[in-house]
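R.M. (postdoc): so does anyone remember the format we settled on? I'll just put the structure tokens first.
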């Protein structure tokens, strides 16, 4: 084979052909990384896709410079997945490559940034490896007791006594420097003093970063309740006919227990398991639970881990002793699996499975289904509030459906009471964002030593500030949105591009000093609670307080252990977390969710409200939920109150059918962005015309989205609604052609055109 087609880590379509010099012949295999030249002086690590002897026409072929892997880093099934994704999501293959590999494996210019981790260790120098010497040292150190005790600790940890007696340095146990300093309660200065005296020396040792705590896999499973056992049996039965089964189980029904039994079952058959979660936020509680059963057979993979750690997990999965279970967020669908047998997608309805930016704009759940399909594995989707797409697939018989509508230990579902904000406001019964009903419930809960969760889907102090006199509102200079006021930082921030500005003392427009804050973000709600309940211990969980993993875990731990009475948060608090002492949940403003300009807004609002309601009253006692809204009569509000997912589904499906939306129709958004609005309008207009010629009535737009400019780029959107019978391959081809046509035009050179599928 003289040529190899490679994928470059660049947002470019297709593959590139290079020739294999004789010196590298035999070393290039599909799935290996190769260093290749590109352009005049760039070098990239590319992925070898296919070897062949077809001499490319019309272009000068460059040579592969180096082969970086002795054996493939990617299995054939992974390369196939990449190609499927590029095709299905209408994005460059190179973008899939960029998303799939941890950055340590794909750096440019041969700078493979992955380095083995070096950990400093400590040992006695050769000179001092002698009993008599040691005795002298301690005499010398009489006036440096801290150094003496550090050395003493070292001798103890290294089991030096035996080694010295037998005069055999091999018997010294290796001691990690950090661990020594920690156990000796000492510091680097003291340590360095001993090094300077030539007694101790430091050396580096290469280790990996994976968790080697000896956690035995005790494989002790909880006994399932009769309802859970029945669900488990039904899932197995449904898998006989369907590759994909949905477990529709109410909150706290013990879905996780059922998953654990299914994982156990897969391991017994020597199969691997991929357990997908929508967000990092959920991993901690779950991983602890799974580790108790499966120990070190379980690995965790997510983007908050360092690239080195992710590289090591990747390599472990290719080795002869891979993890049997991987728990991770959407990016873990890219990991190599050698014998995958089961994929679990927990909280399958969650929108965070969807990657927004950059390309590939994919849905983790759907890619997981492809991964399972390719491996011949079974998939279980689980949730209390299924996505319309998934439920539709159950109704049409594509997926199996298993229901678990009994909570574990028959705890009753929470009682949800709707309170009309408009009415309370009229009667002047509101205190800030709280209705009198909610305050009373909170008060009662606090007096009983129970906990409260308050859900408000807006972070920051106030969504905006406004001049009382002239109505001036601060806006982001780069995006078409107003700035959110963050009081603690005393600044205004754009939630789309991160632009910040200081808060003016006077209105820059009319110089008036009366600047008001409008609306309630989580930060302001926290302040309000402190005013109303000064004794209560309050915590806030949103993007601003959980930037670090520790921040998040701390908040969660405090709440679990009852150190916090009231937890305020954005949709983070709606996630499948399991708390014991929560008796009251307040949904502060349902309308902000219901009024979003998105055809899925009711579906998502239902999901969020049902999920957060599910946090109330999990053990022993029925919980109370106060749902505050200005539109109490809206059917979706009633559906939440009645825990009636099926009614929501029926309503929404009718609407989607009427307006040609998923799951009945396929939706492809065409986005166009440009720095100049006039140019963009021209492009959008021409694009719509061209697409109409091909797709006719299926084309809507161009439209100006609600946020018409982000990061200084204007945005236009064209929507394509395709009936299920249509030839999707053809549709995708035509869209790609249109994209290529316009990108090739000089006047639109600076434009961005991309697609969002489904
Ligand atoms: P879900 O995932 O459906 O919300 P979980 O699996 O988190 O529900 O279960 C809720 C709580 O009930 C958890 O604390 C869990 O430990 C407990 N639980 C559920 N099923 C069992 C069981 N079979 N044995 C013991 N505890 C269980
Ligand atoms: Zn003003
Ligand atoms: Zn901005």
């Amino acid at each position: 084979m003289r040529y190899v087609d490679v994928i470059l880590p660049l947002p470019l379509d297709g593959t590139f052909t290079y020739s294999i010099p004789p010196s590298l012949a035999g070393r290039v295999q599909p799935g290996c990384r190769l260093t290749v030249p590109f352009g005049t002086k760039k070098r990239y690590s590319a992925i070898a896709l296919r070897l062949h002897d077809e001499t490319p026409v019309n272009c000068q072929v460059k040579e592969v410079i180096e082969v970086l892997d002795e054996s493939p880093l990617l299995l054939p099934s992974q390369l196939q997945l990449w190609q499927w994704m590029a095709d299905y999501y209408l994005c460059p293959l190179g973008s899939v490559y960029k998303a799939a590999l941890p950055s340590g494996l794909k750096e440019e210019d041969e700078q493979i940034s992955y380095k083995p981790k070096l950990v400093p260790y400590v040992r006695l120098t050769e000179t001092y490896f002698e009993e008599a010497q040691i005795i002298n040292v301690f005499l010398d150190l009489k006036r440096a007791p801290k150094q003496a005790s550090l050395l003493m600790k070292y001798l103890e940890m290294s089991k030096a006594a035996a080694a010295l007696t037998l005069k055999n340095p091999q018997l010294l146990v290796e001691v990690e420097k950090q661990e020594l300093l920690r156990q000796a309660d000492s510091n680097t200065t003291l340590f360095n003093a001993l090094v300077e005296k030539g007694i101790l020396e430091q050396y580096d040792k290469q280790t990996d970063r994976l968790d080697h705590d000896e956690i035995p896999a005790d494989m002790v499973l909880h006994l399932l309740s009769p309802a859970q056992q029945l669900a488990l049996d039904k899932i197995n039965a449904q898998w006989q006919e369907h590759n994909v089964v949905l477990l529709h189980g109410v909150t706290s029904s013990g879905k996780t227990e059922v998953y654990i039994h299914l994982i156990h079952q897969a391991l017994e058959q020597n199969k691997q398991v991929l357990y997908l979660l929508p967000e990092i936020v959920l991993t901690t509680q779950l991983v602890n639970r799974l580790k108790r059963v499966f120990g070190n057979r379980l690995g965790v993979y997510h983007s908050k881990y360092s690239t080195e750690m992710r590289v090591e997990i990747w390599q472990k999965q290719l080795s002869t002793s891979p993890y049997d279970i991987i728990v991770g967020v959407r990016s873990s669908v890219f990991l190599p699996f050698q014998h995958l047998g089961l994929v679990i997608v927990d909280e399958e309805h969650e929108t965070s499975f969807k990657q927004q930016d950059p390309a590939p704009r994919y849905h983790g759940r759907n890619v997981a289904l492809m991964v399972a399909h390719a491996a011949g594995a079974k998939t279980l989707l689980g949730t209390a509030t299924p996505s319309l797409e998934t439920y539709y697939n159950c109704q049409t018989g594509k997926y199996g459906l298993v229901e678990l509508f009994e909570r574990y230990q028959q705890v009753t579902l929470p009682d949800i009471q709707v309170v009309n904000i408009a009415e309370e406001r009229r009667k002047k019964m509101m205190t800030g964002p709280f209705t009198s009903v909610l305050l009373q419930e909170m008060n009662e809960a606090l007096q009983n030593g129970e906990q409260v969760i308050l859900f408000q889907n807006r972070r920051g102090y106030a969504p905006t500030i406004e001049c009382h006199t002239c109505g001036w509102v601060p806006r982001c200079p780069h995006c078409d949105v107003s700035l959110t006021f963050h009081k603690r930082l005393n600044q205004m921030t754009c939630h789309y591009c991160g632009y910040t500005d200081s808060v003016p003392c006077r209105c820059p427009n009319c110089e008036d000093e009366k600047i008001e804050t409008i609306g309630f973000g989580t930060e302001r709600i926290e302040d309000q609670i402190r005013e109303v309940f000064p004794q209560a211990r309050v915590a806030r969980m949103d993007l601003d307080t959980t930037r670090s993993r520790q921040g998040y875990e701390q908040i969660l731990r405090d709440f679990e252990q009852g150190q916090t009475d009231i937890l305020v948060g954005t949709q983070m608090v709606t996630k499948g977390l399991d708390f014991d002492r929560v008796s009251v949940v307040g949904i502060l403003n349902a309308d902000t969710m219901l009024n979003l300009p998105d055809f899925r807004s009711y579906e998502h609002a239902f999901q969020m409200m049902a999920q957060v309601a599910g946090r109330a009253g999990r053990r022993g006692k029925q919980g109370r939920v106060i749902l505050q809204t200005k539109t109490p009569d809206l059917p979706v509000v009633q559906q939440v109150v009645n825990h009636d997912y099926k009614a929501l589904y029926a309503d929404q499906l009718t609407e989607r059918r009427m307006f040609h939306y998923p799951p009945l129709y396929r939706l492809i958004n065409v986005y166009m962005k440009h720095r100049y609005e006039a140019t963009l309008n021209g492009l959008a207009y021409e694009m719509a015309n061209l697409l109409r010629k091909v797709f006719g009535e299926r084309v809507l737009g161009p439209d100006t989205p609600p946020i018409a400019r982000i990061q200084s780029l204007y945005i236009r959107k064209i929507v394509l609604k395709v009936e299920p019978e249509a030839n999707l391959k053809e549709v995708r081809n035509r869209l790609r052609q249109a994209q290529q046509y316009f990108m090739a035009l000089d006047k639109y050179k600076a434009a961005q055109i991309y697609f969002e599928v489904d």
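R.M.: ...and that's the designed sequence above, right after the tokens. Also worth knowing: Residues 677-695 form the longest helix (19 residues). Residues 126-198 form one domain.
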